[in-house]
Design goal:
The structure holds 2 protein chains of 2 kinds. By secondary structure, chain A is mainly α. Chain A has 10 helices and no strands. Chain A is elongated and about 75 Å long. Chain A starts with 15 loop residues before the first helix and ends with a helix. The mean pLDDT of chain A is 91.
Amino acid sequence: MTEATWPSPAPGSAPLPKMVAAQAGLELRTLIRNGEQLLLTLIIPVLLLVVFSSEALISIGRGSRIGFIAPGILALAVMSTSFTSLAIGTAFERRYGVLKRLGATPLSRGGLIAAKAVTVLTVELGQVVLIVIVSLLLGWHPVVTAVSVVSALLVIVAGSAAFSGLALLMAGTLRAEATLAAANLVYLVLLGVGGVVFPLTKFPAAVRPALRLLPSGALSDGLRAALRYGAGFPARDVIVLAIWAVVGIGLAARFFRWE
Amino acid sequence: MSDAPAVEISGLVKNYGRTTAVAGLSMRAERGQVTAVLGPNGAGKTTTIEVCEGYRRADSGTVRVLGLDPVRDAKRLRPRIGVMLQSGGIPTTARAADYLHVLARFYAHPIEPGVLLDRLGLAGSARTPFRRLSGGQQQRLSLAAAIIGRPELVFLDEPTAGLDPQARHATWDLVENLKAAGGTVILTTHYLEEAERLADYVVIVDHGGLVTQGSPAELTGSQGQLRFRAESGLDTSGLTGALPAGAMVKESPAGAYLIDLPSGVDPQVVATVTAWCAEQGVLAKNLRIESRTLEDVFLELTGRELRS
């Protein structure tokens, strides 16, 4: 009946970085295997990049078309990963008891958040590399200085923090199906009014300041300021994103329900 | 501290809104034993286990797991316990082996995932995503996940619900292995044969409170029955007088005699019955001793009506 002796108890947790790396690895593999997520995070942004840079579908004002579109698509890529994809993924993890089960392992909630941050930033790195390569092939000439590159990276990190906080707030309070619908809807709305493919200058002057205070507007504006105009450090946009991050993460920490 | 029992609960109360799930439960589970928590649906089993696991805060009462407070000392407790939820908990797209390899990296001295997959009959499904596993395979993967970190104490919430007989026996063997290796297991179950086979100690709960607790032998052995068949209409008053106090002799239906013995059947009782038969010139046919099963005890204590 008991053919082999079983190992005796030897409890203990692994070091935190090892746990975080293991969890982030699982989340990355899960994303890569998910066709819908790849569509959302890679295929749609690259498709929009190609279409909107080649055809005069919309008037963007003066300057090169690709110079306008490329930073917008980078902003879209950041939103798709740190907002839509994170919200939907986390909502279903919550729904299927995955978060609850993780709560009984040595991986702390802080460790889980760290793993999700690593996952989001790794996916974004892949997106940025791909989008930059395609954009360069389409004739993009971004401003490349130490200030512009550091500014762009900072805007991406601040934007990711802002959108991640909002994603977790949604995933932790709404039903999974509601999160799925709302996250996709918000993605589309931000695609429209976030300065991704339609310049904010095309909107009525009355709503423009409000749109620039949205995280999407600040994100695309900050990236364009750095990479298109080389306009120095986009302090205003980074501050807007930082405020969204503090508010979103704070509310998520307060209201997130783990099961 | 290290001598603290696996679980010690006193006066646990847990309400969900206006519904009382646990109403003043006290129980104890020793280390190195398998303790089964039995009860009808809605008796408060899962809530009690989830308070022990640190998922829920007690409204009142004290709960100590390995001498620790499951909420306050969660960080210290988590590496030492293994948890199998009643359902779910595994990412639907994660492949069985991949998931166990990830979980193994959370612990200091994990069991090799391949060993667990082999042992639980999952080696052939190592690359199958969780959602494509059969219900029984999902249960077994959940069990593997609960023990991969070599915990001192394992909580299994209905570990064999919905399993086929082979998988159920594989699970039972594994629980016996865990105990033989020095581990402690606390499980909830609806299957009384499961408790009878595995448990050193049984806790029966109902309506959020303790009904009784003890070893299966203590719970079933304190009462026994002796049956035999003979000609109908015997005057059994002399037999009743010769048996230990509390014994009851009934004839129902005609010719079928039943002796209820609250203090249990021992060799002396059998001798008394056969001596009385010899005295009366009665041949007792089909004489047999029946001890109560855990199921008898359970139904007696929790009633026979269906629970929603």
